[in-house]
Amino acid sequence: MAETHSLQDLQQPAVSSKVFVQRDYSSGTICKFQTKFPSELESRMDKQQFEETMQTLNNLYAEAEKLGGKSYLEGCLACLTAYTIFLCMETHYEKVLKKIAKYIKDQNEKIYAPRGLLLTDPIERGLRVVEITIFEDRNIGSGR
Amino acid sequence: MKNCEYQQIDPRALSVSPLSAQNPAEKKVQRPRRKWEAFPGKNIFFCDGRLILARQNGVLPLTLGLIVVTSGLFFAFDCPFLVEHLTVCIPVIGGVLFLFVVASLLRTSFTDPGILPRATADEAADIERQIDTSGSSTYRPPPRTKEILINQQVVKLKYCFTCKMFRPPRTSHCSLCDNCVERFDHHCPWVGNCVGKRNYRYFYSFIISLSFLTSFIFACVITHITLRSQAKKGIVQAVQESPASVVELVICFFSIWSILGLSGFHTYLVASNLTTNEDIKGSWSGKRGAEESGNPYTYSNIITNCCATLCGPMPPSLIDRRGFLPPDEAIPAAAASEMELPPFTPKSDANMCTQSTKDVLERMLHSSDFHGLCPSGNPKTSPLVQEVSSSAPATAEPSLSSGCSRQLARQAVVDPCPLLTPVAFSKNNRRDSLHSINPAFRLASPSPTLSRRALVLGDGPDIGFIPQH
Lengths: 144, 469
Fold this sequence. Notes:
Chain A is an alpha+beta fold. Helix content of chain A is about 40%, strand content about 15%. Chain A is elongated and about 55 Å long.
């Protein structure tokens, strides 16, 4: 039993804990996350950076769900083509989700991984939470 | 020592070598499983996860049948006469309407209504920690609610015991499908699916187009019979020549009342940005309490409400049906089906450091199914079994603990040593393993497949669960 445990230790750092940033429903049902800085991260990173990350994420989700001429046009076009148009092209929401995935990957590489943290894309958690995994501080160069 | 060939094999002696020898072979044999195959809700899937339908799909075949039969009779019996006497546009319009109705219906039925995936074990533990600050584990905790402000309006968020999360506003748990659905409108048996955020527009277009279709067919049939009776100088004669028209008349007459009524009702809901659920419960009508309660989600403009509901951006499906299950969760399912005990022990220990305590307890409970009956089993597991039973906070816990004890008792009766009869055990393992993939689900609601195998108490997940609508 112990053998497999230690082998895994060498391959990846152990997870110390997870922090969950919940949704903020003060503006209704739109997708928005709380920007309050969790206390568990105080020792690891800057409050400013965290809030900036969350704010950018919120802005991106707002862009995805924005009601405007463009989204109405897309909706009407889809209805007229009996929604077959989505076999060829992506919805606006999906395009923004790709942008968000790229942004999170970027942030992980630049800011969070060097500090032994990992942001999980909220879409993998059903847009319920932003999961931040805190890895044990072992001075391993590349935190994964 | 002389009878060593009949001696019971110690599974722990087997643990390392067969595992390493067999697992790579297992990995090759086991194809990667998609997430829909392990979906905890009561849904059925088609086309490898592309299409989703409620298990309780009620009268969807009847709906389709009625529409197809009525339209078929119309095209076969009324159209030839009407084309001859009036215009060729009639079957064309009828055809377009029919196709639109069927397309909308199929879209409504087979689209994910906005199901929220259940919380992972870590999330659930995090929420539980935040709520249960007292520390004592009560047997059945009171329903938890959280109050938030939306547009200066107080809204209560309820905690869903099945999905282990606080439901977002306008989300409701459908007891028929056992899922939390966003912007839950209602579960429509005619359509065989819930109507929620993602398929409301298709549902609305279905009922509107169906109203047009039934009215159109009704009008055409009346015209047909009138023209025929004028030509033949007698309505009875006309009816005798075209009996199908009477069938259509009857079907359309009864449908029109209900469909037109429903369309009108939903048009009102769309214009005021309400859901059927909210309207029925009177959430925003101000009947309850003296304080002013208006709908906090309305844009106070009919056109904006309509556009937002029907033409807004299409949110993606959150349940990721076609994604692949992570391989480390798929392996216990494969390994357990082939080899009963040994591979599970190292796997559960390796996972211990990465998962929450509850998850560990779940896995030990699962492994205790095997260990509990084997004399060389891990002595730790038996107290853990009781611990899980007493500490599990879910409302479905009584059925789970009694189910588990019944399960252990049954296995004890069946066979004292699992290695001698691999068949009986492997079937149990596979079923259990499939549902141990996310232990949070098992804790809250024993799966219906388990109940079908009469391992758990016969009742479905509704036992002890109060639908938090």
